[in-house]
Each structure stands twice: as C-alpha cells, then as structure tokens.
Amino acid sequence: MGTSYSKDEKLFLKQVGDRIRDLRIAANLSQEKLAFACDLDRTYIGSVERGERNISALNLKKIAKALNVKPADLL
C-alpha cells in the first residue's frame, strides 16, 4: 500500500528531486553513474528525481557526497 502525501508534501518532494536532477546534470552524470557512486539503485534515483520517494536522510547524505555538495544544498 502506498503512502498518501498532501499537495504541499508532494511539491516539496518534487522540488528536492528537481534539485538533485539539476546538480546531477551539472556534474555530467547519468542516473546510473550517480546511483553507482551512491551505492543506490538507478530506479531509486529516478523515483527520487520524479518526487515519488520520501528520501531518507542517510540516502540524501550519500547523494550529496556523490555530487560533491553539502546535504543542505539538495534542499
């Protein structure tokens, strides 16, 4: 069973995902290369970028490290 998010929560997840996508593209990384650098699955990265996942703090930290930014820069 999926989690139901409010409109504001969905918007926030989408904004975080868009920020991650923008930084990934600026770093010239594919979703697959970013996922490998983070030790996460490529489909997970895709779902985060689409705002479909409520990303954990630890995964946010992994993604930030792979993108050479601070976790706060993803928010």
List the helices and strands and how they pair.
Elements: H1 7-26, H2 31-38, H3 42-49, H4 57-66
Helix pairs in contact: 2-3, 2-4
Order of helices and strands: HHHH
Radius of gyration: 12 Å
Task: Kindly estimate the percentage of residues that lie in beta strands according to DSSP.
Answer: under 5%
Residue stretches low in confidence (pLDDT < 50, at least 5 long) are: none
CATH architecture: Orthogonal Bundle
Would you tell me which CATH topology applies? 434 Repressor (Amino-terminal Domain)
Described by strand count, sense and barrel closure, the largest sheet is: none
How many strand segments? 0
How many helices? Answer: 4
Mean pLDDT: 95
- How far apart are the termini? 27 Å
Write out the CATH superfamily name: lambda repressor-like DNA-binding domains
User: Helicity level, as a percent range?
Assistant: 55-70%
The domain tally reads: 1
Structural class: mainly alpha
The CATH class turns out to be Mainly Alpha
Shape: globular
